[in-house]
C-alpha cells in the first residue's frame, strides 16, 4: 500500500534536501555540479538573487532564468524541491508572457495554469504518464517545460510550433486538440489501453470550466464512472466559460450555464483543501474499494452532498477539492496523494485558478487576454490591426441587429463564442433574444430547430470548424425536417495561425451534400449584407451563409473591382435580399484586348467561376491574363445551393476553359459544378477544359492566411498560371508561377 505524504516538505524521489534546494537549483543554471553549487561564491548568489527584481512598467519578469535554463525536459524538474517550484513557476510565467508578446496567441489560459503545469510535470512521470490538455490552448507552459522552449518564437507561425498540443510535435503531447471537451474521453481510452496491456502509468485529463460545458465531457464522465479504469480529471475552474464571459444574453451577463453556477457555489461554500485534509480524506478510502464506497456513503449521510462537489460523485468520481491552483504546496501534495491513491475509481480534482494570472494587463482584461496579438510587455499595449475596413463578423452583427429591430422573431444563438461570432453586439441590443449556450454546438443546433418549429427565425452563429460538432443535429433535426434555421458560419476557409484544427474548409462539402438547403458565400461585405437579408427571408428551409476570417474589402475596392456600389436606397447595414440561386457576371471576356502572342489564332476564352471571397483574386487574375491576351470572364456564383445552372451551362457553352474557385475542400462547389456539367453532357465532346481549384486534400498547418493559400495554390498567381496552362501556354505558366510565388517567412521555420 502506498504511503501518503503530507505537507510541503515532501520532495519527489530521493532529493528531499530541505534548506539546500535553492542553492542546488541555481547551481544548475551555471552548469555547476550539486556540490559545486553548494560552494558557489557569494557574488554568484547575488547575481542570481537579482534575477527576481522587478522590471519596467508591467514587466515584472526576472532578468535571468536560472531554474528554467536547467530544465530541458520534465525529468530535470525532479531535482528541485517543492519550495523551489514557485521560482520556476515565476520564470515560466514570464517566459510565456515574453514569448506570446512576440508571436501573439492564447495567453490568458496559459498564465492561469502555470503552477498547475509545474505541479503536474513535477509529480507525474511524463511522457509515460499521459497529460491530455483539453482544447490545448493553455499548453504553452507545458511546451516550454517539455523541450520546446527554444521554438517558442515560432509559435503559431508557418513551419513553427502549433498553438495546441499535437502528437507529431512531441512525445509529451499524447493527444492533439483544438476543439474542446475531448480530454476525458481520450484519457479514459488511454487508461483502458493501459489496463489491457498491464501498465501502471497515469492518465490525466485537464479540462476547463468552459470545456466541461460540452456534452462530450459528460458522456465521458458517465462512462468513466461505470468503468474500472482509473482516470484523473483536473477541472481547471477559472470562471471564464465563454469567450468572453460576461456579455449580455438571455441569462444576463453570467457565465453560460447552470454548471458554472454550481462549481462557483462549491468554490464559495468550501474553503480550499490543503494537502493534509486531502490526504486524510483519501486515507479514509483504504484499504479497499469497499471502503471507498463506504466513505462516500458516509459523506452522503453527513450531508456533504448537499454542500456541493457531488455532481461528480454522483457520476462515479471521487471528488477532491477545491484546491488553490496557484499554491504549489497544495497542488503538488494533492497530486502526489491522488497519484499514490489505490484503487480504480476515477478521480476529479477541482482546482481554482485565475485566467491571466500574474500579468496585470491580462488580469484586468474583460476577456482575461484569451487571445492576443503581439504586445509590448511593459505597457501591455497590443499591436493594433491596420485594417481600414470592418471585419466580416462585425458586418454580420450590424446587419442582423438592423433586421432584428424590425423583425421580433429574429433570435441569435452562439456556442460560447459571443465575441468571435459578433453576437455580443447583438446581445447588447437584444439581450433577451441572444443565447450563449456554452460549448454545446449540438445543443445550439437543435435548440435553434425547436425555435424554428414555433415560427421564430434562429440565426445560429457557429464557426465553420465547430459546426462539425453538430453535424447529425444539422442533418437529423434541421434539414430533414426542413426547418428554417439560419446557419452563420464564420471563419470559413483557411483561418491562419490557429491552424488545421480550426480551418473552416469542410462545410461546403458537408452541408452541400444535404437536400433542401440554401448555401451562400459572399464575395465582399456588401454581398454579406445581401445574404443576411436573403437568409431573413428564407422561411421554408434551412440556409447557410459562410464567410471567411478577416476584413471586408472596402467600398472603393468593391466598386473598382466588381463594379458594384451600395444601393442608394439601401440602409447602410441591411443589404437587400438576392434572387435565390442566381449568380452575377462581374466581367465578360472580350474577344481579346490584345493579339495573342501565338499569332493570328484567337486565344481560347477562360471563365473564372468563383464562390465566396476568392472573387477578388479571380478579378486580379483576369486583369493579369487579359494583359497577356487571354480573354477572361469572371462570375460570382453567390450560391452553391441551388446552383445557377443556366448561367453555368452558358459559361460552359461560350468558353474553352472553366475554372472554379472556392475556399473549401474537395467535395464542395467545384464538385457540384462538375456534377452538373457531366450530367448535362458538357464534357462529352472534350471541347471544354474544366479545373476545380479547391483546398488540396491535406491539412494545411498554421501560418498566415496568405501563406496557407499559397500552400493551397489558391492565390492570384496560381489562378493565372492554371489558366495559362489550360490555354496552351505552358512555358509562360511556369515562368509566371516562379516569378509570382509568395515567399513564406523562412525565418519562422524552426
Ligand atoms: C468545440 C469547440 N467549440 C468552441 C471552441 C472555442 N473555444 C476555445 S477555448 C474556449 C473557452 C474554453 O474555456 P475553458 O475550457 O474554461 O478554458 P479557459 O480558456 O477558460 O482556460 C472556447 C469556447 C472550441 N475550442 N471548441
Question: Which properties best describe this structure?
Answer:
five-stranded parallel beta sheet, 750 residues, disordered C terminus, Rossmann fold, single chain, seven-stranded mixed beta sheet, alpha/beta, disordered N terminus, binds thiamine diphosphate
Report on this model:
The strands form three sheets. The protein has a seven-stranded mixed β-sheet, with helices on both faces. A five-stranded parallel β-sheet has the order 1-2-3-5-4, sandwiched between helices. A five-stranded mixed β-sheet has the order 12-14-13-16-17, with helices on both faces. It folds into three domains: 81-364, 3-Layer(aba) Sandwich (Rossmann fold), CATH 3.40.50.970; 392-562, Thiamin diphosphate (ThDP)-binding fold, Pyr/PP domains (Rossmann fold, 3-Layer(aba) Sandwich); 585-748, Rossmann fold, CATH 3.40.50. It is α/β, with parallel strands linked by helices and 750 residues long. Helix 19 (392-406) packs parallel to helix 26 (525-537). The protein has 33 helices and 17 strands. The protein binds thiamine diphosphate (TPP). Thiamine diphosphate binds next to helix 7. Thiamine diphosphate is lined by residues 109, 112, 135, 137-138, 179-180, 208-211, 238, 240-241, 243, 355, 370, 415-417, 439, 441, 466, 469.
Amino acid at each position: 500500500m502506498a504511503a501518503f505524504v503530507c505537507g510541503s516538505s515532501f520532495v519527489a524521489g530521493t532529493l528531499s534536501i530541505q534548506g539546500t534546494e535553492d542553492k542546488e537549483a541555481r547551481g544548475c543554471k551555471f552548469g555547476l555540479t550539486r556540490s559545486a553549487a553548494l560552494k558557489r561564491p557569494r557574488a554568484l548568489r547575488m547575481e542570481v538573487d537579482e534575477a527576481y527584481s522587478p522590471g519596467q512598467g508591467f514587466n515584472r519578469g526576472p532578468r535571468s532564468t536560472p531554474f528554467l535554463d536547467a530544465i530541458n525536459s520534465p525529468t530535470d524538474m525532479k531535482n528541485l524541491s517543492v519550495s523551489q517550484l514557485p521560482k520556476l513557476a515565476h520564470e515560466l510565467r514570464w517566459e510565456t508572457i515574453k514569448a506570446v508578446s512576440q508571436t501573439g496567441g492564447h495567453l490568458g489560459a496559459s498564465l492561469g495554469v502555470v503552477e498547475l503545469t509545474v505541479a503536474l510535470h513535477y509529480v507525474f512521470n511524463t511522457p509515460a504518464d499521459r497529460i491530455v490538455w483539453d482544447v490545448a490552448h493553455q499548453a504553452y507552459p507545458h511546451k516550454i517545460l517539455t523541450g520546446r522552449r527554444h521554438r517558442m518564437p515560432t509559435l503559431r507561425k508557418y513551419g513553427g510550433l502549433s498553438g495546441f498540443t499535437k502528437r507529431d510535435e512531441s512525445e509529451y503531447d499524447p493527444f492533439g486538440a483544438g476543439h474542446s471537451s475531448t480530454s476525458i474521453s481520450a484519457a479514459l481510452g488511454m487508461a483502458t489501453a493501459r489496463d489491457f496491456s498491464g501498465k501502471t502509468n497515469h492518465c490525466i485529463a485537464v479540462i476547463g470550466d468552459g470545456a466541461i460545458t460540452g456534452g462530450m465531457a459528460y458522456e465521458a464522465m458517465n462512462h468513466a464512472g461505470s468503468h474500472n479504469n482509473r482516470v484523473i480529471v483536473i477541472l481547471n475552474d477559472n470562471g471564464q466559460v465563454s469567450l468572453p464571459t460576461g456579455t449580455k444574453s438571455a441569462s444576463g451577463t453570467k457565465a453560460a450555464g447552470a454548471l458554472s453556477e454550481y462549481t462557483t457555489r462549491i468554490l464559495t461554500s468550501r474553503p480550499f483543501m490543503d494537502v493534509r485534509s486531502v490526504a486524510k480524506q483519501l486515507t479514509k478510502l483504504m484499504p479497499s474499494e469497499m471502503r471507498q464506497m463506504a466513505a462516500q456513503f458516509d459523506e452522503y449521510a453527513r450531508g456533504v452532498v448537499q454542500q456541493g462537489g457531488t455532481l461528480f460523485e454522483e457520476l462515479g468520481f471521487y471528488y477532491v477539492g477545491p484546491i488553490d491552483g496557484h499554491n504549489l504546496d497544495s497542488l503538488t501534495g494533492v497530486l502526489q496523494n491522488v497519484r499514490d491513491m489505490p484503487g480504480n475509481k476515477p478521480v476529479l480534482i477541482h482546482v481554482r485558478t485565475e485566467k491571466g494570472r500574474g500579468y496585470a494587463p491580462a488580469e484586468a482584461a474583460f476577456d482575461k487576454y484569451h487571445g492576443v496579438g503581439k504586445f509590448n510587455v511593459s505597457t501591455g499595449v497590443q499591436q493594433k490591426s491596420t485594417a481600414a475596413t470592418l471585419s466580416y463578423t462585425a458586418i454580420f452583427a450590424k446587419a442582423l441587429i438592423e433586421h432584428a429591430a424590425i423583425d421580433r422573431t429574429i433570435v441569435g444563438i452562439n456556442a460560447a463564442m459571443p465575441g468571435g461570432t459578433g453576437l455580443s453586439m447583438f446581445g447588447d441590443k437584444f439581450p433577451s433574444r441572444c443565447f450563449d449556450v456554452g460549448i454545446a454546438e449540438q445543443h445550439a443546433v437543435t435548440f435553434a430547430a425547436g425555435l424554428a418549429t414555433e415560427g421564430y427565425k434562429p440565426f445560429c452563429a457557429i464557426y465553420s470548424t465547430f459546426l462539425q460538432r453538430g453535424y447529425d443535429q444539422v442533418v437529423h433535426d434541421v434539414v430533414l425536417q426542413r426547418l428554417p434555421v439560419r446557419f452563420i458560419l464564420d471563419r470559413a476557409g483557411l483561418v491562419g495561425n490557429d491552424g488545421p484544427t480550426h480551418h473552416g474548409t469542410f462545410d461546403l462539402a458537408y452541408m452541400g451534400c444535404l437536400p433542401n438547403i440554401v448555401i451562400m458565400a459572399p464575395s465582399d461585405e456588401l454581398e454579406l449584407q445581401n445574404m443576411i437579408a436573403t437568409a431573413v427571408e428564407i422561411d421554408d428551409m434551412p440556409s447557410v451563409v459562410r464567410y471567411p476570417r478577416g476584413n471586408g474589402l472596402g467600398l472603393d475596392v468593391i466598386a473598382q473591382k466588381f463594379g458594384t456600389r451600395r444601393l442608394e436606397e439601401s440602409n447602410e447595414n441591411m443589404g437587400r435580399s438576392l434572387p435565390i440561386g442566381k449568380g452575377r457576371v462581374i466581367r465578360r471576356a472580350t474577344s481579346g484586348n490584345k493579339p495573342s502572342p501565338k499569332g493570328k489564332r484567337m486565344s481560347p476564352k477562360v471563365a473564372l467561376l468563383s464562390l465566396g471571397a476568392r472573387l477578388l483574386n479571380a478579378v486580379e487574375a483576369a486583369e493579369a491574363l487579359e494583359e497577356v491576351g487571354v480573354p477572361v470572364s469572371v462570375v460570382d456564383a453567390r450560391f452553391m445551393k441551388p446552383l445557377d445552372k443556366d448561367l453555368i451551362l452558358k459559361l460552359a457553352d461560350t468558353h474553352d476553359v472553366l475554372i472554379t474557385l472556392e475556399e473549401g475542400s474537395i467535395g464542395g462547389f467545384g464538385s457540384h459544378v462538375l456534377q452538373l456539367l457531366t450530367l448535362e453532357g458538357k464534357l462529352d465532346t472534350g471541347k471544354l477544359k474544366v479545373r476545380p481549384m479547391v483546398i488540396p486534400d491535406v491539412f494545411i498547418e498554421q501560418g498566415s492566411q496568405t501563406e496557407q493559400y499559397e500552400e493551397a495554390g489558391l492565390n492570384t498567381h496560381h489562378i493565372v498560371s492554371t489558366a495559362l496552362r489550360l490555354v496552351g501556354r505552358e512555358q509562360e505558366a511556369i515562368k509566371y508561377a516562379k516569378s509570382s510565388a509568395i515567399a513564406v517567412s523562412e525565418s519562422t521555420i524552426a
